[in-house]
RNA sequence: GACUCGGUAGCUCAGCUGGUAGAGCACAACACUUUUAAUGUUGGGGUCCUGGGUUCGAACCCCAGCCGGGUCACCA
């Protein structure tokens, strides 16, 4: 491994510390009794405190130094005075250990007493300090000046996401986002638990991926020798639990979808789904607006939130607009009672791309998505979706073409989706079959599996139920004013970092040829390389061992492929 | 997937018309006992993303690739 100059220096300091009898990674606990925040909030002149954290800045002025210690709750200034730390003749601990061998980023423990400096900063006068863990890599060190400007920020998104641990250390505002994320989950959980609803867990590995239309990840179970799918939704399992007699069940569900990645889509994401028996979607709308008002207040202390250029207010109640009215409002077209052909013609007139795989529901959905969706900035319930795009939703009590469904739109984006759940098992079977027909017609979004066990469960009877799903990542984006999902996930999915592989000279020769033409027949490659038999054999075996090339037998031919 | 912008020191970035690779922070050395983006002096540090090509000469121009950002498409 190639080490930078600074890394070599820090490794050398490890040795020097051990020579002086200082263990850089001590085993014993350190008896911390204050955090930086507690020391400042419960400040008393002369109070003895024991704190620990990373040393994040140092202003050395000869025999005295000011430094900043950062712990989980922030930073506090610490004052190192040579004669306080080294009351006797031996000044090694200050002169050598502190000034030379401790680096920015190191974890140290400090015993000292509180005082206030001449410039009014609450500070810990260090009486003794202990190295708790040495850091071998230099941290990026953003600095904030008197005007609040950040210099030398650690801002490159790639580095920040790949090394989130560093991001969290040096960018306090990043930590705040994740604190809020956890507050949101806690708030939602409390809201549900207070009402007596029951948090459950359902399978992530599913034999049939149901409850949504999305491409799943496929895996394989060895001893059962069957394919299993990572869940794309947990809806069908939660409804089975309503069949089983729970009045209300919810789950924070990590879902996995094998689709494109961008700033609003990560392959794994978190949804919250809740199902409540004996309710309908009207009840659920009221429940949802109360829930979000509560959550926004718990997270931000206010119902108002800023998202980009928009100010939104999560205070209940929210506007309710039917999909028909929304389309009428923004396009002037009334979808009521129209045939598929009439809808298609209207869509074309609106400048929407259509094709023959689109059914009525899809056409209406496109009209809404293209012309209406973006206009709903304040939280708005869009209700009564077309039947053939909602296969798990009960038909509307007043209009059999529609369903009792709503989505909650905020800043033109969907953050929640809810139904009066379909509990007629015969209707449900027909809807699944209609989806199969759509899939056969070429609609890649239509569900192509029928979950027979779910239908069997419904045949045992499910009470009237309303269900709600909330995209937790989207919601926290709104509550923390982040435009990108990567900012609200600790570890967003990234392409793996390419590891540098060391090749010897013969291997390089072969690999260069292989890169220009891959795959290539093995004899051709061997001839082109011009190596002796022995060298050739070593080189090609070296390349396959380092997993930069592979050799495959196709019939009688050996084929070499660069990886 | 398309378009577009970027990849230079540990971090943030500059680098002119193709002509010996730069700054600030960080690091090392010295000075400095109430500073706070501490300060002053001195010094070290580079696979200019990778591989080809053009050229007397490439961080810079051309081609291919890798990684990332943004926009769009896709994604109930």
Automatic annotation (TrEMBL):
Q: Which cofactor does it need?
A: Mg(2+)
Transmembrane region(s): none
Gene Ontology MF: a single term: lysine-tRNA ligase activity
Q: Where does Mg(2+) 2 bind?
A: 414
- Catalysed reaction, written as an equation: tRNA(Lys) + L-lysine + ATP = L-lysyl-tRNA(Lys) + AMP + diphosphate
The cross-references to PROSITE patterns, in alphabetical order and at most eight, read: AA_TRNA_LIGASE_II
Chief site of localization: cytoplasm
Kindly state which keywords UniProt assigns to this record, in alphabetical order: Aminoacyl-tRNA synthetase, ATP-binding, Cytoplasm, Ligase, Magnesium, Metal-binding, Nucleotide-binding, Protein biosynthesis
Q: How is the cofactor bound?
A: Binds 3 Mg(2+) ions per subunit.
Q: Which InterPro entries does this entry report, sorted A to Z?
A: Aa-tRNA-synt_II, aa-tRNA-synth_II, aa-tRNA-synth_II/BPL/LPL, Lys-tRNA-ligase_II, Lys-tRNA-ligase_II_N, Lys-tRNA-synth_II_C, NA-bd_OB-fold, NA-bd_OB_tRNA
Top-level class of the enzyme under EC nomenclature: ligase
Compartment(s) where it occurs, according to its Swiss-Prot or TrEMBL record: Cytoplasm
Q: Which Pfam families match?
A: tRNA-synt_2, tRNA_anti-codon
An example GO biological process term is: lysyl-tRNA aminoacylation
Q: Name one GO cellular component term.
A: cytosol
The catalytic activity of this protein is classed by the Enzyme Commission as: 6.1.1.6
HAMAP family per UniProt: Lys_tRNA_synth_class2
Check the record and name the NCBIfam families matching this protein: lysS_bact, PRK00484.1
Family assignment? Belongs to the class-II aminoacyl-tRNA synthetase family.
| Subunit organization | Homodimer.
Q: What is this protein called?
A: Lysine--tRNA ligase
Native source species: Pustulibacterium marinum
Give the lineage. Answer: Bacteria, Pseudomonadati, Bacteroidota, Flavobacteriia, Flavobacteriales
- Chain's gene name: lysS
């Amino acid at each position: 491994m190639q080490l930078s100059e600074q890394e070599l220096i820090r490794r050398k300091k490890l040795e020097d510390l051990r020579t002086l009898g200082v263990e850089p990674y001590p085993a014993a606990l350190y008896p911390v009794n204050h955090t930086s925040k507690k020391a400042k909030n419960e400040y008393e002149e002369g109070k003895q405190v024991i704190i620990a954290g990373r040393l994040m800045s140092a202003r050395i002025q000869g025999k005295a130094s000011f430094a900043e210690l950062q712990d989980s709750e922030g930073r506090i200034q610490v004052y190192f005075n040579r004669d306080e730390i080294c009351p006797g003749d031996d000044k090694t601990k200050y002169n050598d250990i502190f000034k030379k061998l401790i680096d920015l980023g190191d974890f140290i423990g400090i015993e000292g007493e509180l005082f206030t400096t001449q410039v009014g900063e609450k500070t810990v006068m260090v009486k003794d300090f202990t190295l708790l863990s040495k850091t071998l890599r230099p941290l990026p060190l953003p600095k904030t000046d008197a005007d609040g400007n950040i210099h030398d920020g650690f801002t490159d998104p790639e580095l920040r996401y790949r090394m989130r641990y560093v991001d969290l250390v040096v960018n306090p505002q990043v930590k705040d986002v994740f604190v809020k994320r956890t507050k949101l989950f806690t708030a939602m959980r409390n809201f549900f638990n207070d009402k007596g609803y029951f948090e459950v867990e359902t399978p992530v590995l599913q034999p049939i991926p149901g409850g949504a239309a999305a491409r799943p990840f496929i895996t394989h179970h060895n001893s059962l020798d069957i394919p299993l799918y990572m869940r794309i939704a947990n809806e069908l399992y939660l409804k089975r639990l309503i069949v089983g007699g729970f009045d209300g069940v919810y789950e924070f569900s990590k879902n996995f979808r094998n689709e494109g990645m961008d700033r609003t889509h990560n392959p794994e994401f978190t949804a919250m789904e809740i199902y409540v028996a004996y309710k309908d979607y009207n009840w659920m709308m009221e429940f949802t607006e109360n829930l979000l008002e509560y959550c926004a207040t718990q997270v931000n202390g206010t119902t108002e939130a800023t998202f980009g250029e928009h100010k939104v207010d999560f205070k209940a109640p929210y506007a309710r607009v039917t999909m028909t009215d929304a389309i009428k409002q923004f396009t002037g077209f009334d979808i009521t009672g129209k045939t598929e052909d009439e809808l298609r013609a209207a869509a074309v007139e609106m400048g929407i791309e259509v094709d023959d795989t689109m059914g009525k529901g899809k056409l209406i959905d496109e009209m809404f998505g293209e012309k209406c969706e973006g206009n709903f900035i304040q939280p708005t319930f869009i209700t009564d979706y077309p039947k053939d795009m909602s296969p798990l939703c009960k038909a509307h009590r007043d209009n059999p073409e529609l369903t009792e469904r709503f989505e909650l739109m905020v800043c033109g984006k969907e953050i929640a989706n809810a139904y009066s759940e379909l509990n007629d098992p015969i209707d449900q079977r027909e809807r699944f079959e209609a989806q199969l027909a759509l899939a056969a017609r070429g609609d890649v979004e239509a569900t192509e599996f029928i979950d027979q066990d779910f239908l069997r469960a419904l045949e045992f009877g499910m009470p009237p139920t309303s269900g709600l799903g909330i995209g937790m990542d989207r919601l926290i984006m709104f509550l923390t004013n982040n435009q990108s999902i990567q900012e609200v996930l600790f570890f967003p999915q990234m392409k793996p970092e390419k590891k540098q592989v060391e090749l010897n000279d013969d291997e390089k020769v072969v690999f260069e040829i292989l890169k220009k033409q891959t795959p290539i027949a093995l004899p051709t490659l061997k001839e082109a390389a011009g190596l002796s038999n022995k060298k050739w054999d070593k080189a090609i075996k070296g390349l396959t061992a380092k997993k930069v090339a592979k050799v495959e037998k196709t019939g009688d031919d050996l084929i070499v492929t660069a990886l």
